[in-house]
Amino acid sequence: MNVVHFLWALNQGGAENLAIDLANEQARDHHVALVVGNDSVSPSVKRRLDPAVRYQCIGRPTGSRNPYWVASLLWALNRLRPDVIHSHTRDLAALGRLIFRPMILTVHSVNMDFSPAVSRYNALCCISESVFLDVRQRCPARKLHRIDNGVVIPRIAPSPDRAPSALLRAVQVSRLAHEIKGQDLLIRALAAMSGRCPVPRMTVDFVGEGPSLHYLRDLAVEVGVGAQCRFLGALSREEVYARLGDYDLLVQPSRREGFGLTVVEGMAAGIPVLVSNIEGPMEIIGNGEFGHSFDSGDAEALAIALEVLAAEIRCGSARQRTIAARRHVEETYSLQRMAAEYDAIYRDVAERRP
Question: Which residues make Cβ contacts (< 8 Å) with residue 83, sequence separation at least 6?
Answer without folding.
Answer: 1, 2, 3, 101, 102, 346, 350
